[in-house]
Design brief:
about 450 residues; binds flavin-adenine dinucleotide; alpha+beta; about 30% helix; single chain; 5-stranded antiparallel beta sheet
């Protein structure tokens, strides 16, 4: 109950400081919606939710957190599965209204508000026949996804989302507004490209844009019994694959959809999903050897890039229960067999294992050029489950953890922080980045946030 007086005094302080956005406290009818994030497993009750409308509002929220010592959760798109976009008894700084996207067609750049989703970014850039690499779904926040790295449909052609950040404007722990770029605060610029939300609140990103309009995207689907054969062919195929094509091997339950043969619907299956940015003829040629395997279904088609970004949106709705883990590594037959064997005993129909193929433009950026943890592993495993019944929490978590542990022997030892659902302990964050990179991140943290104001994240402790 003591959060009520805290919320009242924090709201009064925010107003007195000139906060102009909306303020939501526990007695507000909007509070239930405002306290929740994407993952339905997260049930936290902040003292106050501040919906910033301007950079000055962000500064006020940051100074309020500093002065009151209340925990501060910064929310971009709210997709962070550990629930870093909310907190108990503290301040949620919601950036959802800072979603403006301004495109400079001639310079091929876009200025993107810190709370924009990829749907916002894609809509604005597509109008100019341009795009910047986002993720695989449109509802995710550009903020959290980019700060952690950002793996999506354009990765092999144009790199990770963070590789396309030309500069960023941040409100740092002192309340100061700073720009981080190649010449201004280069260490901070290095750290925010992979190091997460540890260093300040990004109010605006400047992204490089590329000519991307229509793409050939979709998937081919096979029964799980063919997993090893398909995995082998996939590995051969991606070795030397054109960078125009970004793909992943997906283990899933075949959907109850028209394009799937009736006998395969609801059964475990393996798919190759991808995005080709070249011409339809080039895509036809590059996809030929995979199609020659004789998939049970083939839904690769030419479509506008934003439509591909929305292709999987319905499969990952807000409010369901999510648990995810990921690691970088290689994918020999053993790895495919390990995944296929566990798919048979999966506790949820909505379990998925996405094996992202990297390389291409991701691997052409120097290992030390950004804080992103691993650019040399050819694959990233993303193991996740989605379900609704709280009684099934343990079974789903155990399944994801069990498979991730079993895949550990194929791993590089590094992990992608954006795919972790647990609030990782310091040692695990260090392992995810590797010791040297972690030490460099600690140095930057000490310079910009020595009091660890921004600690509700995969935390780099100063
Ligand atoms: P939030 O929970 O709002 O933020 C996550 C973290 O980033 C928090 O620590 C937050 O404080 C910080 N943060 C967010 N915005 C800012 C900002 N402007 N300034 C400072 N800190 C900020 N990842 C991929 O790489 N590729 C994918 O294709 C992909 N698909 C996904 C699909 C779904 C359905 C989900 C749930 C996740 C997916 N992810 C993917 C993982 C995703 O990258 C992370 O969940 C990411 O943290 C989401 O960012 P957000 O802004 O939506 O989340």
């Amino acid at each position: 109950m003591d959060s009520v007086p805290t919320s009242v005094s924090a709201a009064a302080d925010a107003r007195r400081k000139g906060f102009r956005g909306s303020i939501v406290t526990p007695d507000d009818p909007d509070y239930e919606a405002a306290r929740h994030v994407w993952n339905g497993m997260i049930d936290r009750r902040p003292a106050i939710v501040l919906r910033a409308r301007s950079v000055s509002d962000v500064q006020i929220a940051v100074s309020l957190a500093r002065e009151t010592s209340l925990p501060l959760a910064v929310r971009g798109g709210g997709h962070g599965l550990p629930g870093f976009g909310t907190c108990d008894d503290g301040i949620v700084l919601d950036l959802g209204e800072l979603r403006e996207v301004v495109v400079d067609e001639a310079e091929r750049t876009a200025r993107v508000g810190g709370g924009a989703t990829w749907a916002d970014v894609d809509a604005a850039t597509h109008a100019h026949g341009l795009a910047t690499p986002g993720g695989l779904v449109s509802t995710t926040g550009a903020g959290g996804l980019t700060l952690g790295g950002g793996m999506g449909w354009l990765a092999r052609a144009y790199g990770l989302s963070c590789d396309n950040v030309l500069s960023a404007q941040l409100v740092v722990a002192s309340g100061e507004v700073v720009t981080a770029g190649p010449t201004e605060h280069p260490e901070l610029y290095w750290a925010i490209r992979g190091g997460g939300g540890n260093f300040g609140v990004v109010t605006e990103f400047e992204f490089a844009l590329h000519p991307v309009s229509a793409v050939t995207g979709g998937l081919v689907l096979f029964p799980l019994a063919r997993a090893v054969e398909v995995g082998r062919a996939y590995r051969r195929w991606v070795d030397g694959l054109s960078d125009r094509l970004t793909t992943m091997l997906v283990f899933l339950t075949a959907p109850d959809a028209e394009f799937v043969p009736v006998a395969l619907r609801g059964e475990a299956a393996v798919a190759i999903a991808g995005c080709h940015i070249g011409s339809a003829d080039e895509a036809e040629r590059d996809l030929a050897s995979i199609r020659a395997l004789g998939p049970a279904a083939d839904v690769f088609d030419v479509l506008p890039y934003p439509d591909l970004q929305r292709f999987f949106d319905d499969d990952v709705p807000a409010g369901r229960r999510y648990y995810m883990k990921g690691l970088f590594g290689t994918m020999p037959d053993d790895a495919v067999e390990t995944i296929a064997a566990r798919m048979v005993g999966r506790p949820s129909e909505a379990i998925e294992v996405d094996v992202h193929h990297l390389g291409g433009a991701v691997a052409r950026v120097g290992e030390d050029a950004t804080a992103f943890a691993d650019r040399s592993s050819p694959f990233t495993f993303n193991v996740y489950s989605i379900w609704d019944d709280p009684a099934a929490d343990e079974a789903n978590r155990d399944w994801v953890r069990g498979l991730t542990d079993a895949l550990g022997r194929f791993g590089s030892g590094r992990a992608y922080v954006n795919f972790a659902t647990d609030r990782e302990a310091v040692g695990r964050v260090e392992a995810a980045y590797g010791t040297e990179r972690h030490e460099r991140l600690v140095e930057v943290k000490r310079r910009w946030d020595p009091g660890n104001l921004f600690r509700i994240n995969q935390n780099i402790q100063p």
